[in-house]
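INFO  loader      accepted 1 record
INFO  loader      residues=397
INFO  predictor   begin
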Amino acid sequence: METVILAVVIAVVVLGVLGGLVVGSRRKKPLPPPPPAAPDITAPPAEPHVGDEAETPRDEPRRTIEEVDLPDGSAPPVVEELPPTEIEVPEPTAGRLVRLRSRLSRSQNALGKGLLTLLSREHLDDDTWEEIEDTLLTADVGVAPTQELVDGLRERVKVLGTRTPDELRGLLREELLKLVGTEVDRTVKTEPEERKPGIVMVVGVNGTGKTTTTGKLARVLVADGRSVVLGAADTFRAAAADQLQTWGERVGAHTVRGPEGGDPASVAFDAVKEGKEMGVDVVLIDTAGRLHTKTGLMDELGKVKRVVEKHAPLDEVLLVLDATTGQNGLVQARVFAEVVDITGIVLTKLDGTAKGGIVVAVQRELGVPVKLIGLGEGADDLAPFEPAAFVDALIGD
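INFO  predictor   done
INFO  writer      dumping tokens
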């Protein structure tokens, strides 16, 4: 019996130990994490004020619509007026070429000095005369005018005999003046009888300074007391109208322009119409300077001329040529002369690498006179052509 009781006690102890082990193992297991707390929801940041960039928004008092003072309409808003464009006073044209003579002579003296040096040789044989011919041809005088000048020089030197430097300079001056021409009327026709305005059309290839020349010519006319309207008929070149308008504003001349790529003839027509209505003295029309080799574009130039002449005949058609192109400019001159009746020539860039003989050559080619020459980039560097001042610049003092 004691054995049975002992066995029961041992079984109870064993069960108790096993139960304690089970409970202990359960206590060592990690508890599951608590559920996440609800996130705090904050309002999005306010838009930064002007000049605040992205700083923290500030608490500012706000007014209701009733508290805002609204204008009652009794006082008109103050509009700040821009100062008017200052009108320039162009330099007088009288004697302008004489004043610019030193600038011209710096680049042209090579011709005059070369000829005087050759003519000063003690013996003028055939080789010397050939050198004189080469000097003239190199200066773009042209073959026929060169032969004419050399023949005249040879005859006069033979008669003169002994030659002092002053006699040679006088002799050369006379022959060059004869070649350039002193009896030709070089006046730019802007004052037709019994009507206003005078109408001048300016033509030429892009790059010759055509639009700039038109603006400078406006200054020449204003300096002589004329009122001017500018017609920006070069509608195919970007900024051409803006450039011309700027030139006009500087001397108080009104500019008529159309849309970019518009009809040039329409702009030219409107310019003459407005010029007549305003009662101005002269209308200057700047035309497109497209490549002269494109027949369709040259036809367009002829159309501009025909449309303008529905108002009145053209008084001047001035062809602008780059003097630095030399004989190549004569090709352009021929083509333009076939499309419109050229009445005068404007030679630009004559103070650069240009050779003065182009004056003679282009006059002989077209049978029309050089009326204006450009001697630099300044606003008043366009001068009426004066043969005596030009020849004096060629041969130097």
